[in-house]
Amino acid sequence: MRGRSTTRAWRGPLFAVLLLTGCAAFAQVYPAKPVRFIVPFAPGGGNDVIGRLVSSSLSERLGQQVVVDNRGGAGGIIGSELTAKAAPDGYTLLLGHIGTLAINAGLYPKLSYDPIRDFAPVCLVATAQNILVVHPSLPARSVKELIALAKAKPGQLNFVSGGIGGAGHLAGELLNSMAGVQMVHIAYKGAGPALTDLVAGQVQLMITNMPAAMPHLKSGRLRALGVTGANRSPLMPDLPTISEAGLPGYELTNWFGVVAPAATPRAIVERLNEAIVSGLKTAEMRERLAAVGAEPVGSTPAAFAAHIKSETGKWSKVIATAGIKAN
Asked: Is the whole model's pTM more than 0.70, yes or no?
């Protein structure tokens, strides 16, 4: 009986040791074949550009091809769900961002994946500032003046975005909520048409990405009031943040990160994290990200997990307060 008890007592720890040894050995040979990198949006957009930068860098450092697979549709839901249901073996990755890993959880009551439960965070890759721009005809040259004008004319000012529930929409609703104003949201089918109407003076203001707004700022067809991040942008260092320009605590930063299916071995996650962070430290990667208005981060898996959790809670509250419903 003692012999059997001793055998049983050691069976659990021995299994754990063998499992860890097996995972370590697997990590040493990983990847042994091409890796599928899902970008849940159509080719050509900002997500696709960043996804291809990351995939190229990973291919070089892992010694295997990392193939971008664009699976657009439903606000990034299709590609995200596909990744969540994939085998947790390190051969399917997802480029997630503020929408797919934070906003969608509050926007869709019956979302087909859970951004916290169904993924293993690998690395927060980059952030990108948005910018608050107005048509020059609007008599507001600062965030303080805009808020004062909106309070004096409740329901008479409008802001536009590329669609309901997108970052531009939520940025405007966050401003409404924090400033205690009632600007009216007008949703367009894409940020491009919205920006075109703003330049033409048919609408009044917009919070959009910096690369798209820069040509119109240089030509004087739009006026910038502030950037949405916690810090000033290197692209426009003289332009204040919205927080320091009149609305303390305001912040919305677009972000992009890599996740794998939940239960992906920790050793694989750490291998991927190391490769991504290494790539982000190169001058070439930093320059190419800067060209699309993004700044490299390179977090640990744990820090990225905490970031996703924090952002999910923040935007769920904004969506609930504004009563936003997905189309």
From this structure: yes
